[in-house]
Write a structure and sequence with these properties.
The chain has 113 residues and is of the alpha+beta class. It is 28% helix and 48% strand.
């Protein structure tokens, strides 16, 4: 009887641990979409599509930051005549037409933070 009880407890723990981790990730994702984003200001976004004829076009966006623990998350709001969209920012090193950028939005927009 004692062994059966131990096996049941071990099974329950193995099932609940991934569920707790998944729930934590979902909560972080929901917090990213809602709440306390701080506006940092306007940024000029350079549009560059690899292999395309659209090089050198600029758009304007508003940069936001949110800090969760020790991590900072950035997003950019781009408004057009038809819609408003928020894009996550990928921070890294990018070289476009010989110029260096440290942030990328969507697939083809680059700027410096």
């Amino acid at each position: 009887m004692k062994k059966v009880l131990i096996l049941i407890c071990a099974f329950c723990m193995s099932v609940t641990e991934p569920t707790i981790a998944l729930t934590r990730e979902i909560l972080i994702a929901e917090n990213m979409q809602q709440g306390n984003w701080e506006e940092l200001g306007k940024v000029s976004l350079k549009f560059h599509k690899e292999g395309g004829n659209y090089m050198g076009m600029f758009s304007e966006g508003i940069l936001y930051v949110r800090v969760i623990g020790e991590r900072a998350f950035y997003r950019v709001k781009i408004e057009t005549m038809y819609e408003v969209k928020f894009y996550s920012v990928a921070v890294g090193e990018y070289v476009v037409e010989g110029k260096k950028y440290n942030a990328k939005v969507a697939e083809d927009y680059y700027f410096n933070i």
